[in-house]
Amino acid sequence: QVQLVESGGGLVQPGGSLRLSCAASGSIFGINAMSWYRQVPGKQRELVASITSGGKTNYAYSVKGRFTISRDNAKNTVYLQMNSLKPEDTAVYYCNLDYTVRLRDNTVYQLERWGQGTQVTVSS
Questions:
Q1: Alpha carbon distance 78, 93 (integer Å)
Q2: Which of 11, 24, 96, 115 is found 20 to 30 A from 76 (Cα to Cα)?
């Protein structure tokens, strides 16, 4: 069983910063990518940033230059440093894990796991 534990959300004033963390644990053979998504009520979940096992990053246009995604491969943990936060960044942020598991017959399966979500509120 694979688990994702998120932390770091909260209330911050416009222009402030927050750092989200997501730690993966369990029966993981390999990690292809770790990502952060966000969702506000009534809207679809959207990709915020992603990072591959090789360190390649991808950002939503709305957060480029303000957010930085990074990962600690040894700890299977991904971080999202959010600076210059705006009210429109308010959302529930979800961690996403794209990983593989290896069965006893050496078959490798690609799977996906979501975190429970952490609320980020940007307001004065």
A1: 13
A2: 11
- 39 C-beta neighbours (distance < 10 Å), count: 14
Structure tokens at 48: 């915020």
User: Buried (b) or exposed (e) across 49-64, using 16+ Cβ within 10 A?
Assistant: bbbeeeeeeebeeebe
Calpha distance 26→102 (Å, rounded)? 12
C-beta neighbour count of 97 within 10 angstroms: 23
- List of E strands, the chain: 3-7, 10-12, 18-25, 30-39, 46-52, 57-59, 67-72, 77-82, 91-102, 108-114, 118-122
Q: What is the pLDDT of residues 28-86, one digit of tens each?
A: 999 999 999 999 999 999 999 999 999 999 999 999 999 999 999 999 999 999 999 99
pLDDT at 69: 98
